[in-house]
Amino acid sequence: MTTVRPHHPEQLTAPTRPEQHRFHLLDGLRGIAAVIVVFVHAPRSLRLDPEYGTLAVDFFFCLSGFVIAFSYEARLLQGMRFSRFLILRLCRLYPLYILATFLILLRTPVSADHLHSLQHSPWSFTGMFLLGILAIPNFFTSAPGFEELYPFNSPAWSLFYEMGANLSYALLVSRRILHYVLPVIAAAGALYLVNKAWNNINLNAGVTASGMLGACARIGYSYSAGVYIHKAFRSTTWRASQTLSAIGGVVLPILLVVLLCAPPMQHGPVYQLMFILILCPLLVYCGSLVHTTSALTRLCVFLGTISYPIYMIHPFFSLGMTNPRIAELMDNSPLLARGLYLLSVAIIIGVSWLVARFYDEPVRRRLTAFTKPRSVASPISAIN
Question: Is the pTM of this model over 0.85?
Fold first, then answer.
């Protein structure tokens, strides 16, 4: 991960090399969204789960399109090999994925959701786990305990689609056909989502194989929007002034929390649609124009650092809440149970920082250095 000194708006009027620049406020927003995802998986009885917190995934998709385009488009156009791009993305995503998968396996005996898996034959259980280790999604069975694309690591479903979008983007850029195909992908995704919202169908799809079309629409539109935001960012030299940045540094995080934690609505799918099509891209675009103060930068760097570990490892802690004894506690003392869950969120944040600092970052550095072509002399940074 590259550390970048705080910048002033006038310093960005010249072209900025991707490996020398970080969007600190976007890092902070990503961390906030990841924490909200933890609450999404809180037991319903605690009433801590935000109704529309799953829209954080669409924010991740849009942000990924923006950051990948900013980081790799020029290098892909200059001849970066597709295989090299693939290796860099695997180095970025796989170390935490494999750690989280093994952690979930350790929690299987105490998770009510996964007790079903123990009723299957050892061969089927082992086979599904091996598929998980190889990051191969489950399109083979919907038996109890194996309904999700990644039964041992539920959040990984979004990584599957994001990786597919990353690789598709790299191919389209390398072949110089992105500007032809991207509008079609964005329009198709938007039309699919509009149709679902018009019929009042929840847009939260992708966790299971049956939601593949919905997931493709979500990633197709949001990732494309992120790429277009990158083009808009590059096409202008205007950046927010210090006053506007100070306001944006406060308003945008609050706005993200309010939007993701909005109360249930009668026409929820319409609200989901408005967030995906309009509000989410606006958040990413405005966040890209803001420069942060030194104090806010430190907070945003911290939130950005823990965002991916939180997203991947929080099921290890959350699944414990489905233990029958804890479920009984929630029924008998809901206030105490809420306090315990809030404490677990604080623990997840702390553990996520430790995992990032002492596992994910060192492993990624070693893998990137080990796989680096000998002929390449310039450092490569993964800022997503």
Answer: yes
> Residue 285's Cα: distance from chain center in Å?
17
Task: Find out whether 31 and 300 touch, Cβ atoms under 8 Å.
Answer: yes
pLDDT digits 0-9 by tens, 63-89? 999 999 999 999 999 999 999 999 999
d(CA 203, CA 211): 9
Residues 64/284, Cβ–Cβ less than 8 Å: no
Gap between the Cα atoms of 41 and 250, Å rounded: 26
> In the beta sheet, which residues pair with residue 148?
208
The tally of CA atoms less than 13 A away on the side-chain side of residue 272 is 31
Selection from 12, 6, 28, 21 nearest residue 67 by Cα: 21
Residue 187's alpha-carbon distances to 49, 85, 191, 194, 278, in angstroms, are 32, 26, 6, 10, 14
For residue 40, give both structure tokens. 């999404």
